Amino acid sequence: MNDPKQNGAAQAQEPPRSRPLIRRGARLLLYAELALLAVLLMAPWLSTWLNLPFWLDLATRLSILAMAAVSLNMIMGLAGLVSFGHAAFLGIGGYAVAIPVWHAIYGGADWLAGESGLFHFALAAGLGAGWALLTGLVALRTRGVHFLMITLAFGQMIFYLLSGLEAYGGDDGLTLDVRSQFAGLNMDDAAIMHWLAVAGLLLALLLHAGLKRTFFGLVLRGTKADDQRMRALGYPVFAVQLALYVLAGALAALSGGLAANHAAFVSPSMAEWTRSGDLLFMVILGGSGRVTGPLSGAAVFVILEEVLSSFTRYWHLPFGLLLIAVALHQAGAFTAFLAQVRARGKQGAMRAEADQ
Amino acid sequence: MNGALLLSQLINGLQYGLLLFLVAAGLTLVFGILDFVNLAHGAFYMLGAFVSATITAISGSWPLALLLSPLVVALLSLPAERLVARPLYGASPLAQVLATFGLLLVIEALAMLVWGTEGRGVPLPAWLRGHVTVFGAVLPIYRILIVAIGLLVAVAAFLLIHRTRFGMQVRATASNRVMAEALGIDTVALEARIFAFGAGLAALAGVLVAPLSEASLAMAFEVIIIAFVVIIIGGLGSLKGAFIAALLVGMIDTMGRAFLDDLLRMVISAEAAETAAPAISSMSIYLFMALVLAIKPAGLFPPQTRGKRP
Predict the structure, then answer these.
(1) Quick check: A9 contacting B, CB < 8 Å?
(2) Per-residue pLDDT reduced to its tens digit, B159-171
(3) Cβ contact (<8 Å) for B290 and A154?
(4) Does domain A26-311 sit in CATH 1.10.1740?
(5) What is the pLDDT of residue B108?
(6) How far from the centroid of its chain's Cα atoms is residue B66's Cα?
(7) Which sequence spans correspond to the domains of chain A?
(8) Which tens digit of pLDDT belongs to each residue from B131-154?
(9) Chain A residues close to B92, C-beta within 8 Å
(10) pTM of the entire structure?
């Protein structure tokens, strides 16, 4: 296990469980993603230069969504755990910013009130980690489809909790009258907000890339390949996966805090289960486990949502068809279908020959 | 908290639980037999409501809609089964949820094209709008009808799975697909029928709900998660588990909404209880799920044998 080469060899023998969307173009895709990252870094200048303020807004949204997708990609890529409740962490992070701000302005709950950005984001990370710990203790006792459904249900629990907070707007959500205050940063400046989002994205990317190389990451990847064997070897599989889940939860909650600051608005729909589905789509499209994958996944999602929804209010139709196509491809259904068609063709030819 | 109120809330809980069972039954059958997670199952529930609204509007007869709509939706589910579900039976759960999430969005968009974004109310015939008084509790006739239909269908479903030739073939396919095929069972057709049967049950629930609320697009997204909670509590793949869990969830949710406020008042101030009660009661079924899972990670009645697909 300590020898990465040996680990690689063991993985090579494993049959491929899911096929990557793009096999030959993987390197090209990586370059495209790095280019996208560079564009995101320069987006405030580019948007001023091209006089397209709307695109900066989009780029900020993309960065925040990509950060959330990276945190989901960490648990999927490293440990092979597919969570369908990731949006809950975004909701938690968002309200961890919005509620203290609300109390700072309208009074009440002095222990919670505050405009300090450090306090907001510490609270978001803490609550995200806490929720991940609580739900992880239950959900991580299960695997595969059970884990997926249980995280889905827990995610929806947060959605209903937030909808039930009638003091904080209930279903309608809550507008942030001021953004988080950081010393020396003007958060109302779109460029500053954008760079903060990109910084969050970079933090997530570096964390994932770094973790992959550590011993902790290697153990996690071992549990993904065969958690029974890892347990037999004496590794604390449950504790290691729980630690990863808590880390990813805190990270996703931070992205929720960023989203709240960006939109200056939070609502329970941040935590809706369909949002978890969107995040899952981003991860799969970029290739789960590829560190930079969520970048292209989030880019495709944001562009689709923006372009399709401007053309038609029925944009769920093409988006849904795309989801189906991606899933069928991932499961190898198209290849199987083509093989079937070919086999039928051959059978037909043979029958035709036999008839003659 | 008096007896009459308790009785009427019990009937409400029972009615809600039975509706949940109708949705969850198809979900758990499809999971148990086809090894398939269907996020789009709620869409059939929504379609049932809309189709019944249309049939009632055209024919003017709600009982006709009650009979026809589940059949129509079961037929509509067949292309979805052929094109999206069948290629993914036994595939990774990730591919299944992604594809059925897509299917849900597609059906939602198509429903929006056909029926628009507005909800559709479904008027009940006059003889169903009345009330009866039982032990001092005023009960709407319609809710009693829902309970009766729910119980009837639950019994029929059990008999179908456990007492008929079709059910025997279903159980044989679930426990060993290859052997079932070798014995001459057309498993492909059988699986399509199970899928359509589940869709029809969900549609029936949608038809029954429509006159109470109305047919709306959001139905598809709301019911599916609660149905998942039900089958997780009951044990994935178990019809008996789904029935018991659906009744438990229906009762807990209804009782929580009705009485939690008063219960909390005994412990904390009235004002705090008023704000806390709705948030806690909407989470109560999830808390119950967490509790069950903490004790029994596989749910209350995990199926004994569930053969893996080859």
Answers:
(1) no
(2) 998 899 999 998 8
(3) yes
(4) no
(5) 94
(6) 16
(7) 26-311
(8) 888 777 788 899 999 999 999 999
(9) 17-18, 330-331
(10) 0.87
